[in-house]
Design goal:
This protein is α+β, with helices and mostly antiparallel strands. It has one helix spanning 38-48; strands at residues 2-5, 17-23, 26-31, 51-55. It contains 1 helix and 4 strands; from the N terminus they run βββαβ.
C-alpha cells in the first residue's frame, strides 16, 4: 500500500503494518492480511492521520 499523507508525521503508528519506504509525505506500507483487511488498515489510518491519496498494490510472488 502506498499512502500520501496531507501532513508530515515523524512516526506512523500502524495496528498491523510496517512502513517499508519513507519518501516524506509518501510512505510505502506492508501489512499482514492474516491480521486484518486493507479496509481495516485504511480506516485506522484515516482516523489518525490526514490522507491525501492512497493506492493498494499486490506483492510480487517470487
Amino acid at each position: 500500500m502506498v499512502v500520501e499523507f496531507g501532513e508530515e508525521y515523524p512516526e506512523i503508528e500502524l495496528p498491523y503494518g510496517t512502513v517499508t519506504k519513507d519518501e516524506g509525505l509518501k510512505k510505502s506500507i506492508t501489512f499482514l492480511r492474516e491480521l486484518g483487511t486493507a479496509i481495516d488498515l485504511i480506516t485506522a489510518l484515516g482516523q489518525r492521520y490526514v490522507i491525501k491519496d492512497m493506492s493498494i498494490q499486490e506483492a510480487d510472488i517470487e
